[in-house]
Amino acid sequence: GVNVAACVIFIIPFYFISPGSFVRYLALSTITITTCALSLITARRGRVTLGSSIFLASLWVSIMTAAYISGGITSSLYAGAFVLTVLAGLLLGDHAAIVTALASIAAGVLMVFAEVSGRIPTPPEQDSLSRLLSYTFFISLTVIFQLLSTRTIRLALSKSQAELAERLHTEQALRLSEERYRLITSVSTDY
């Protein structure tokens, strides 16, 4: 549910950032929401790593495409690469974070070449409110994923503590049982 909700929230700032490109963002978001739903279905079927990979790839393509549409790396949308890198690390580990960072840098280099060669139109000047909305969106995503990862870690720690307590209780019961057995054995050998 969080994946799809994050993707639905994904479209909101784009209306304010670039109203002229809203239809493109809406189409892009529709594709993103569809792939997020696919990632959710995949994760619920026990393929969490694959679902997370689909989710991350979908967001990466969406954010890089939206940045390209909005003027390349000068667009505040390119800042989403930072969020994606953190998200990749949280969901899939260090290797995925490094791959995401390198892919984002490569996409940025390609956008620079496209801009220099005139393939990216001159971006419209973003006012402070548009930039604030874009950055607020990415900061919010970072906080949401940080909270989710912290919750997951706490649940895992709680489960580990419960398992440890159960193991200690079992070991103590086993020791008592062994003591009784020794006592019974020593008493029965005396007769």
Q: How much helical structure, as a percent, in the residues?
A: over 70%
Query: Biggest β-sheet: count, sense, barrel?
Result: none
Sheet/helix structural class: mainly alpha
Number of strands: 0
Please work out how many helical segments DSSP would assign. Answer: 7
Beta-strand residue percentage: under 5%
Task: Report the average pLDDT across residues.
Answer: 81
Q: What is the CA–CA distance across the termini?
A: 70 Å
Q: What characteristic shape results from the CA principal axes?
A: rod-shaped
Return Rg in Å. 26 Å
Spans of at least 5 consecutive residues with low confidence: none
The H/E string reads HHHHHHH
In short:
With about 190 residues, the protein is mainly α. It has seven helices and no strands. It is rod-shaped and about 100 Å long.
Describe the structure.
The chain is built from seven helices and no strands. With 191 residues, the protein is mostly helical. Helix 1 runs antiparallel to helix 3, helix 3 packs antiparallel against helix 4 and helix 4 runs antiparallel to helix 5. It is rod-shaped and about 100 Å long. The chain starts with a helix and ends with a helix.
